[in-house]
Amino acid sequence: MSGRTGVRCEFCGREFLTAGEKAAHVVHDHSSRPFPARCPVCRVTFESPADLKAHNEGVHGAPSG
Ligand SMILES: [Zn+2]
Ligand SMILES: [Zn+2]
Prior knowledge:
alpha+beta
């Protein structure tokens, strides 16, 4: 039926040749579990609030709080 064999990421719309590549992309770029901390400035996610705090102070030069 379909002339295309691409698999599209439901999160960012990026297309991959195989479902395996798409799955690996989702795990790597989006992750299957929610992150507890996200930078409100650049939207980068971190696995711990401590990492986000260090990011804020190091990258944005502003202490959290
Ligand atoms: Zn994606
Ligand atoms: Zn940031």
